Amino acid sequence: MKMRSFLKRLIFDIIITLLILAIIVSISLYYMISMPNTSFKGTAPPLDAAATTLSQQLKSHITELAASPRNIENEAQLTAAKNYLINTLTNYGYQVDEQTYTVETDDFSNLVVTITGQTKPDEILIVGAHYDSIPDSPGANDNASGVAALLAIADFLQGQSFARTVKLVAFANEELPYFGTQQMGSLVYATQVAEQQQDIIGMISIETIGYYTEAPQSQHYPWPFERFYPDQGNFIAFIGNFSSRQLVKNTIDIFRQHATLPSEGLATLAAVPGVEFSDHWSFGQYNYPAMMVTDTAPFRYPYYHTAEDTPDKINYDGLTRTVIGLREVVKTLATE
To answer: Best exposed site among 30, 111, 171, 194 by fewest CB in 10 Å?
Structure first.
């Protein structure tokens, strides 16, 4: 009798423990994936004349930047990309500041455009994208697409005034062998920002945003997120860690109010594969709210980090719709 009573009690305790764990897991998952507003659904309207012009501009930027690989092994091309960015931003009417740093005997530059806020100039929004590629890849999607978006945002913001300061930054050396090292361009910049004790209200990294497809089973995820997100790679993703959850929510909320493209959001553990795979990682090292906007890169893009990452692989319609939404995100965050 005592043994039977003991077993009943043990089974009861196990069931209660499993129920508690299930509740904790459910709450945690809801906390990670719950996002405001509603993702765009249905057939998107055709691009209007202004959006068609934007699409052509984005294609022109990507074609120019992705003519060849640009990195430490292709320094001439990396310099050509830097000069293209400087010339383009200068033609838009901006002053471009170079943050130059040395790796052994080679100089690299982060390029910074500052739009000073009118009423809250000390509150700073950083929007960035890296302009290098891996060796042997022209990097049309990774990350000429992000840099093209950065240029389009700069063009859109030209002549406008905002409460907060906006800094648009093109980073050097995001790719290996520099990722996660002191020579990573965004970490060099984030370190300076932290030393100066700048008030960064958010950092948005635009990373690999040009590939969209309606094909079933085209989208993949780290376990267990495939249970909660679509299997078609037709959306743009807003991703950050737990500490940047509010920034992720604010950003996707604004995007969904303006974009004619599906969107998904996630704020989760930094250890989840892919969550920290961009320049926002550098700002997280100093506890700044930071996040990434991405098409999920290796979880979708079949040409990721290959010689086939060329301008013809970009879905310019999806890229244009993403950029239109991101322009409004930056404008709204800077105005609030």
So the answer is: 30
Could you report the per-residue pLDDT of 178-234, keeping only the tens digit for each? 999 999 999 999 999 999 999 999 999 999 999 999 999 999 999 989 999 999 999
Residues 6+ away with beta carbon under 8 Å from 132: 70, 71, 78, 81, 139, 143, 172, 173, 174, 175, 185
Q: What angle do CA 84, 85, 87 make, to 5 degrees?
A: 65
Cβ pair 77, 135 in contact under 8 A: no
Q: Rounded distance, CA 321 to CA 47, Å?
A: 8
Alpha-carbon distance of 274 to 280, in angstroms, equals 12
Instruction: Give the integer Cα–Cα distance in Å for 260 and 268.
Output: 26
pTM recorded for the entire structure: 0.93
74/143 Cα distance (integer angstroms): 16
- Helical residues (DSSP H) of the chain, grouped into ranges: 2-33, 49-65, 75-91, 146-157, 185-195, 245-258, 280-284, 316-335
* Residue owning tokens 């990573």: 184
The CATH superfamily assigned to 40-335 is: Zn peptidases (3.40.630.10)
